[in-house]
Input
Amino acid sequence: MFVKNVQACINAGVPAVAVQTPEWERCAAQIQCITPSYACWSHVRGLMKDEQVLAEPVNPLAPFVAIEEMEDTIVVFINFNIAMKHPTVIQRVRDVIPYCKANGVTLVFLSVSGEISAELEKEILVLDYDLPDRKAIQSVINGLGDYAEGKSDGYDQMVEAATGLIMSEAENYIALALAKNGLVLNEKAVEDVKRQKATALKKSGVLELYEPDNLPKVGGLDQLKIWLWERGKAFSPEAREFGLPFPKGILVFGVPGTGKSLIAKTIARQWNMQLLMMGNVLDKYVGESEKKMKEALKIAERMAPCVLMIDEIEKFFAGIGGSSDSGVSTRIFGLFLSWMQETKAPVFVVATANNIAGLPPELLRKGRFDELWFVDLPGDFERQEIISIHLKQNKRDDSEFDLPMLAKQTSGYTGSEIEQVVLAGLFRAFSRGKDIDTETLLEAAKETAPLSVTMAEQIAQMREWGKTRARLASTPDAVAPESKLNAFVINRKLKGI
Output
């Protein structure tokens, strides 16, 4: 796509183009293949054409003298944006642009930052540069040995593991993984590359690669699970032939502690996809926040199919419509909305929220997300399932516990509160030198104050909004969980509190 865009710029007579990329060498090599007449400027070699030095690097104005003698040529400037901060250089670039347009010369400015001075913004067209695709990653693997597709068990997994990296990262990480594993392309080598990629993404401060291994089961949420099972099939080639688009994603909100964040991790594991967790993109420098957002979305598209998780999205886009951050949050939000609307990549977005009132209406309308889900307090059967999950997770036989009694006494508790009840019971049982039992869990439940009691008004308001304006993630109980007496409330009443 990038080569086609550059070719289109040449055909259209566009005089100057800027490309933001750390892959100067790969980008320059692709551009060089477009035309036989090619020149390149760098801070070390100056302006070179056909191995001949046309201008020394010490004078940033010198290359433009040589350019005014060229015709039908692409001139690549590597990291020239540093020099373009000087007023004299800015003016010289503007002066040479009419000549370039009239004589078929195209200037291409490559840099990591992609910065363009305000005086040149309207004169220079900005192009995106794609990360290496699967074919490019395959060429890297094939170049390191006899690892052709079909000959090695971990070939496809390695291609997926390296997708989303720039070419030099892919080459280095794959070569290092193979060297550490005796030049054998196996599962261990794949895991090494995944770890390296996770570290590289984490350094960016925007995306984090999460490996959803050894996750606990998600209790309840039967309606959401059925919906996800149906959508999971929509990523197959058969779905494309059937005429189905890729699912866009879901917005999950509800009572804190009901497992909203765990849902995204579970989706990635069940659909066998990589999970990307988006962090804070806000930056103190002008334009950097938008750049980070674009880069994060580009990486997500290149790593597709994948799950992109935005936890507590109401905080992520805090400040929308305000003036406290000079409109940065609003611009980032606009970029995200446009991307969700236009992307064709199989990136499934899972956004979670605790406070739905903090989100702008344009995010909630149909067409942004496939569905808006409300996760309520777990019902009786769901609480039994959650208690059972946590008991099994702690290597206990759930058949030895009175699950219906425990579910009744934890009415109005969230999944995380039930988890803490089990954990508190384990600590108490261990301190007493015995194993945990139903009675110990009931004691722990009496001392655990659920949010449905401590923040009753706020939780009631949230539940009322969710029940009437969103799709319920669980089949509701006939009697609302918070309306029943639980161990904590009964204990306080017995004590006269």
Q: What stands out?
A: The CA atoms of residues 14 and 101 lie 7 Å apart. The two ends are 69 Å apart (CA to CA). The domain at 2-127 is CATH 3.40.50.300 (Rossmann fold).
